[in-house]
Amino acid sequence: VNGQRYIGDGLRGKLRITINGIPGNDLAAFMNGPEIVVYGNAQDCIANTMKKGRIIIHGNVGDLLGYAMRGGEVFVKGDVGYRAGIHMKACDKQIPVIVVGGTAADFFGEYMAGGIIILLGLNRQHNEPIAGDYTGTGMHGGIIYLRAEVPKEHLGKEVQIMKIEQQDKAILKKYIKKFAQEFGFDPDKILEAEFTKLLPMGKRPYGQKYAY
Question: CA-CA distance, 138 to 120, in Å (whole number)?
Answer without folding.
Answer: 22
